[in-house]
UniProtKB/TrEMBL annotation:
<dbReference type="InterPro" id="IPR017451">
    <property type="entry name" value="F-box-assoc_interact_dom"/>
</dbReference>
<dbReference type="InterPro" id="IPR013187">
    <property type="entry name" value="F-box-assoc_dom_typ3"/>
</dbReference>
<feature type="domain" description="F-box associated beta-propeller type 3">
    <location>
        <begin position="15"/>
        <end position="261"/>
    </location>
</feature>
<dbReference type="InterPro" id="IPR050796">
    <property type="entry name" value="SCF_F-box_component"/>
</dbReference>
<protein>
    <recommendedName>
        <fullName>F-box associated beta-propeller type 3 domain-containing protein</fullName>
    </recommendedName>
</protein>
<dbReference type="Pfam" id="PF08268">
    <property type="entry name" value="FBA_3"/>
</dbReference>
Amino acid sequence: FRVTDLKLRFPGRMVASCDGVSLFNDPNNHRAFYVANPATLQVTTLPYLDVPPNPLYYSSCIARLPSTGKYKVVHSYKDLHQEYHWLVLTVGTDNSWRKINCQQAFGDDEIELDCFPVSVAGVIYWTDYDFLLDGINYFLAMDMDDETIVKVPIPSGCAEPCVYLKMGDYLSCFTTNLTSVQFDILVLKDLQRGEWDKVYEIGTEISRDVPRDLFFVLPLGWLDNDEVLILEALTFQGDLHLAYDLKKKETRVVDLSVCGSNFLPHIHVDSLVSWMT
């Protein structure tokens, strides 16, 4: 892969991407959303969000349905009674958002959906919040095809913190100590059964090609058919972004200085796909 400056301006900030189509939010108006395809320059303004003025900034995501190829956008918000809801919209079809109450999925537990959800093969996962039920820790997912809520158990024996990323058509989980450079990587093989399989183990070979004062490593996403892992690394001199090749077991620094000093990275893969089907 290579770093390319598209030299194009898009509406607002990217908050999610799926199969070549990205979701943008206006930082000056958190109720305004857009979808865009950076490869084809197609842009659509979504219907305005009619929600209380206490938005969750990082709670929106986009998914493509494998069954139809259509795109759906979901947005989480907390109402004036402090209850959570999801708003769902089919891009290019719906003229308004549909509300789904998700409070019953948690019972009386405190919940937190203000995070970056993960979109994989038509399912959106809220992985940053887990809750205990009958001795098992779960997080929530929504199958966007039928908009049903699924409780997903975290991997057995997994100790927090975990990082969850899209890996092909699977959700991948990194069990890690954030002060370490060792990862066990598991994938969710069966959503309904909550079955996880270990597929990779990355050891200390990462540390040979990074600065000695490295003290924090965070996986960000996969590129090149899930053979290259992009990581954010912190040193006492500042942030670094690394690319680790799983086959070659090689690490190189990725120069993202073109982005400036203040940005949030998202994995986006170009496609000529359109939401107008």
